[in-house]
Amino acid sequence: xxxxxxxxxxxxxxxxxxxxxxxxxxxxxxxxxxxxxxxxxxxxxxxxxxxxxxxxxxxxxxxxxxxxxxxxxxxxxxxxxxxxxxxxxxxxxxxxxxxxxxxxxxxxxxxxxxxxxxxxxxxxxxxxxxxxxxxxxxxxxxxxxxxxxxxxxxxxxxxxxxxxxxxxxxxxxxxxxxxxxxxxxxxxxxxxxxxxxxxxxxxxxxxxxxxxxxxxxxxxxxxxxxxxxxxxxxxxxxxxxxxxxxxxxxxxxxxxxxxxxxxxxxxxxxxxxxxxxxxxxxxxx
Length: 285
Prior knowledge:
Structural class: mainly beta
Number of strands: 12
Radius of gyration: 33 Å
Strand order of the largest sheet: 3-4-5-6-7-8-9-12
Strand content: over 45%
Shape: elongated
Order of helices and strands: HEEEEEEEEEEEE
Oligomer: single chain
Helix content: 10-25%
């Protein structure tokens, strides 16, 4: 009897230690599941070229709560993109009348721009690139009459304006894939640009023709969010909106060959700009 009691005294602590260890392991497993939940999307893989990569771009989660939002693979590392953005606008009026104040409006104007670009994806969904921009505008005001009353009325005629500019920009784009299909994504673009141009303004002043020429040097830093959609396997459509930017401009002006000096201006834009909406196509290979 005494021998049996001694054996029980040895066995009971061993069984208690085993039960405590099992309970601790189970608790640790539960904590691990709560802190780092497992998502089936993290296990999926896609084949890009000869490599098998994750369909979800791994990113650190700095928040305290996992909302289950993923950055899906949109364009993998090592791809090249060749883009083209173009715009054209034209306005013609012939002896038009606006209310009862503007009469005999005869105006012709047009403006167009072309922006080729090349980009390389240094990481999946992240690219850097170069963009070249050429812009040209022409405006001719043959006649304009303004008549408010007997004391406020005047006429303009034979006024013309011409401008052209070239610039180059370096940009960085960060895409966020919205689905596993790799068709839709949003992006944010940061671009630093530098360029130069010229303008020419002709008009009549006291019956004498005046010709003002301006040489322009400008630079800008722009932040533009946008949307990208693959309309074919290798061709995507892009639209971006200018929402924030810093700019500076230096102008040197002469009138009829007489130097009128230099002017420097700078500014910032903190609002959605309806005149800075860009549409374009990009081929990814």
